[in-house]
Design goal:
With 299 residues, this protein is an alpha+beta fold. It contains 8 helices and 13 strands. β12 (246-254) and β13 form a beta hairpin. The chain is globular, with a radius of gyration of 20 Å.
Length: 299
């Protein structure tokens, strides 16, 4: 048996959504509960609002401890300008065990959307580092990772390549994922490898948590494989047969995420050059030109 990674499952995880608004006061908890729609997810949100597991706090933007995080968000120019220019910040904070995820994160985002609708505000997902695409739209009952739950950020790396890193997995008790020294022309491949691996890690972790203690160590092989179909499953698309799995190695490394300690870097299984692996092994096997489900933007 090859080397094994031991991933610590934390006792609790934290999810935060920031609503940037010009309204000086948020609705009270009773009004907020009344404003939630019907459905099972709304019932979860109402229960959490009467517990210490979900809180809503507010302050002036000038005094906000989250102002610096807004400067680091990705997203469109108009969305970012509106978020950064608002006079008030409301923050929805959810604390949950990994076993209660993703349901509690969904409920927290439903509360954030409801607050945004009541205050004409914009919503920033502080875990994923992105604004919500539709801040006052309905919150889906069914969880799909592609529904704005995962950010992928790209930056120059050493040499001629780029690095791509996820943001948002830590709220589910998972490490973030990192790709380094990716050739510029293979960037789309790298982003889709990260998405496919994120889907697989979360699916496997949820299966493990269903039969394991709430916290502990989850072990998985350092030398593993990516099913190319998981790239399409990330987008909630049933994949055709895309061929054999892609061998790769997961290496613990420091995370780019400000709320995380450790990430997993994708590396070639033989310890070879990253750039050559992305071109010769990953690019031919990973789907890159995808048709997203209805209502989703192109990947």
């Amino acid at each position: 048996m090859g080397a094994m990674l031991s991933l610590t499952i934390p006792e609790t995880t934290t999810t935060r959504f920031l609503i940037a608004t010009d309204e000086p006061a948020a609705p009270g908890i009773r009004r907020l509960r009344d404003a939630l729609p019907a459905g099972g997810l709304a019932r979860t949100a109402r229960d959490l609002l009467t517990s210490p597991l979900l809180t809503v706090t507010g302050c002036r933007a000038a005094d906000s401890p989250w102002a610096a995080r807004l400067r680091d968000l990705g997203g469109g120019e108009t969305e970012l300008r509106e978020l950064r220019s608002a006079r008030c910040h409301l923050v929805v904070t959810s604390i949950a065990t990994p076993a209660a995820q993703p349901r509690h994160a969904q409920a927290a985002r439903l509360v954030a959307r409801t607050l945004a609708a009541a205050t004409a505000g914009r919503v920033a997902d502080l875990a994923a580092g992105l604004p919500l695409t539709d801040p006052t739209g309905p919150e889906p009952e069914r969880f799909k990772l592609c529904d704005d739950w995962l950010g992928v950020f790209v930056a120059p790396d050493t040499g001629q390549g780029v690095r791509a890193a996820t943001a948002g997995l830590h709220r589910f008790g998972l490490p973030e994922l990192l790709a380094r020294r990716v050739p510029y022309e293979r960037l789309r491949t790298a982003v889709n490898v990260l998405r496919g691996l994120a889907f697989r890690l979360q699916a496997d972790q949820r299966s493990w948590l269903s039969t394991a203690p709430a916290a502990g160590s989850w072990r998985l092989p350092a030398d593993t494989e990516l099913d190319p179909g998981d790239v399409l499953r990330y987008w909630d698309v049933a994949p055709p047969d895309l061929g054999g799995p892609i061998p790769l190695r997961l290496v613990p490394c420091p995370a780019d995420c400000p709320e995380c300690g450790t990430a997993l870097q994708i590396a070639p299984p033989d310890g070879g050059e990253d750039a050559a692996w992305w071109t010769r092994t990953a690019a031919p096997a990973v789907p890159t030109h995808l048709v997203p489900p209805p209502g989703r933007s192109s990947p």
